[in-house]
């Protein structure tokens, strides 16, 4: 457990990353490039300066409005920055200044981006999928996990995803799983690197998916709902809370 100074720096880093994620999750699904042009207000198209872009505080000081045209700035911006800051700080607090901590931070950043784009646009960006795998490789490099185990679990995850997608399509003649979810199962396999953890992961994802589906339909968003957030949260739980995986097997009499 790290000092408050290190945790504070991690929170600041997370807020900055969160600010970047608000930009990336807005532009990339729309086919717009990032890093090529300055951030602009989507209403008046005025280029934004530091006073407009300081994470969380700019939104609070400006009372959720553009400083130039007074158009409302959605809650997604400060909430994304706050969530990213808190998750990054929590990783630093628990894992310290280590490669493992950086990998867990990266996992959290990927999950935040994934949840936003899947809920808003029902899409999981390939850039996020690649980052997820890269941080998973960093994680197991820090833990010195056997690479055959890591790659094998990734292949198993991909195979399960393909079976679920095309099996459902064959039996029900409609998609039950998107290709983004299939790729995410590959990334989850890389992170989990274990069939022992993969089964509880799928169980947790199924429970969360049912809950998300009920809420999604209650909000009138349609019969099909994004499954990526349930998979992502389940992966986070399985990685940072291994006791949940152990408890799952204990309930079924497996020690």
Q: What report would you give on this structure?
A:
This protein has 255 residues and is an all-alpha fold. 71% of the residues lie in helices and 0% in strands. The protein has 11 helices and no strands. The protein is globular and about 55 Å long. The model has no long low-confidence stretch (mean pLDDT 89).
List the helices and strands and how they pair.
Layout: H1 4-27, H2 50-53, H3 57-61, H4 76-95, H5 99-121, H6 126-143, H7 147-172, H8 179-192, H9 195-218, H10 228-240, H11 242-251
Helix pairs in contact: 1-4, 1-5, 4-5, 5-6, 5-10, 6-8, 7-8, 8-10, 9-10, 9-11, 10-11
List keywords for this structure.
mainly alpha
């Amino acid at each position: 457990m790290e000092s408050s100074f290190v945790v504070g720096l991690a929170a600041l880093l997370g807020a900055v990353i969160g600010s970047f994620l608000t930009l990336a999750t807005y532009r990339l699904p729309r086919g717009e490039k990032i890093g090529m042009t300055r951030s602009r207000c989507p209403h008046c198209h005025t280029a934004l300066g530091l006073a407009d872009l300081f994470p969380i505080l700019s939104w609070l000081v400006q009372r959720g409005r553009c400083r130039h045209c007074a158009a409302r700035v959605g809650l997604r911006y400060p909430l994304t920055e706050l969530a990213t800051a808190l998750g990054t700080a929590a990783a630093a607090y628990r894992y310290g200044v280590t490669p493992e901590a950086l990998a867990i931070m990266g996992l959290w950043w990927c999950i935040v981006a994934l949840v936003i784009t899947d809920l808003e646009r029902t899409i999981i960006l390939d850039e996020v999928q690649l980052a997820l795998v890269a941080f998973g490789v960093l994680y197991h490099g820090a833990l010195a996990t056997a690479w055959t185990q890591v790659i094998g679990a990734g292949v198993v995850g991909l195979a399960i995803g393909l079976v679920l997608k095309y099996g459902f399509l064959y039996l029900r003649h409609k998609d039950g799983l998107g290709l983004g979810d299939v790729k995410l199962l590959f990334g989850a396999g890389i992170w989990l690197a274990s069939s022992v953890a993969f089964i509880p992961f799928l169980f947790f994802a199924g429970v969360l998916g049912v809950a998300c589906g009920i809420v999604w339909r209650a909000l009138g968003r349609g019969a099909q709902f994004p499954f990526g957030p349930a998979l992502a949260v389940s992966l986070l739980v399985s990685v940072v809370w291994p006791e949940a995986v152990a408890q799952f097997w204990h309930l079924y009499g497996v020690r």
